[in-house]
Write a structure and sequence with these properties.
It is a single chain. The protein has a single domain, classed as 3-Layer(aba) Sandwich (Rossmann fold), CATH 3.40.50. It has a 9-stranded mixed sheet, with helices on both faces. It has a 4-stranded mixed sheet with strand order 6-5-7-10, with helices on one face. It is an alpha/beta fold.
Length: about 210
């Protein structure tokens, strides 16, 4: 009988890991929290969560050596990474947050602050509709223009729009979903987005 390798959940000191564990357990998807960067190579899929400061996130990734492990593994064709919220932002080259901070540089582009405008509250907290901009693996078989739960003050601007598969219009357009060959990201929290979010996690778990 074929056994399914668990999805690794990267513990670098930021993010509500338990909510992701609970969502994956509900879906009966094997998972394991990864506390040591040296163990990340044991997994074929991993989730990089994150809530909080970009600079603090990069500091923790560096100090725990997860940054090196992630950069090494994403070069492999048999490793898949999903960044969630801050975890997605950390994939980019640079963020305006904290007076400017370099990211992992996996995705060309930057993270910029959402501008305060009339009827636009910052941080953006709540349920928002996204528009599917390119063919997507993560939101496959989900209703057109699905609604997901967001909590963020900064948003991603991707240079290569071909990898953007979901866009959030919130005063201006931001990239809400990215998908490359083996690196994925969601600005929203799928683990907090009810049925649509659970489907995103299930779709990620089924990538081969």
């Amino acid at each position: 009988m074929r056994t399914t390798r668990p999805i690794g959940i990267i513990d670098y000191g930021l993010g509500n890991l338990q909510s992701i564990v609970n969502a994956l357990n509900y879906l009966k998807i094997p998972n394991k929290i990864v506390n040591d960067a040296k163990d990340l190579h044991l997994f074929s899929k991993a989730i990089l969560p994150g809530v909080g400061s970009f600079e603090y996130g990069m500091k923790n990734l560096t100090q725990t050596s997860f940054s090196n492990s992630i950069l090494e593994l994403v070069k492999s064709n048999n490793f898949f990474l999903l960044g969630i919220c801050l975890g997605m932002q950390l994939l980019y080259e640079f963020s305006e947050e904290d007076d400017g901070c370099k990211g992992l540089g996996i995705i060309p582009g930057k993270v910029k602050r959402i501008k305060n405008k009339k009827n636009i509250r910052v941080p953006n907290i709540g349920w928002r509709k996204i528009v599917n901009s390119n063919e997507s693996i993560l939101i496959k078989d989900i209703e057109i223009e699905p609604i997901f739960y967001f909590v963020h003050s900064y948003a991603c601007e991707t240079l290569n729009k071909k990898v953007v598969t979901g866009v959030l219009n919130y005063g201006e357009s931001f990239d809400a979903i990215i998908e490359t060959d083996n690196v994925f990201g969601t600005q929203f929290h799928p683990e907090k987005s009810q049925a649509a979010g659970l489907k995103v996690l299930k779709n990620f778990s089924q990538i081969t």
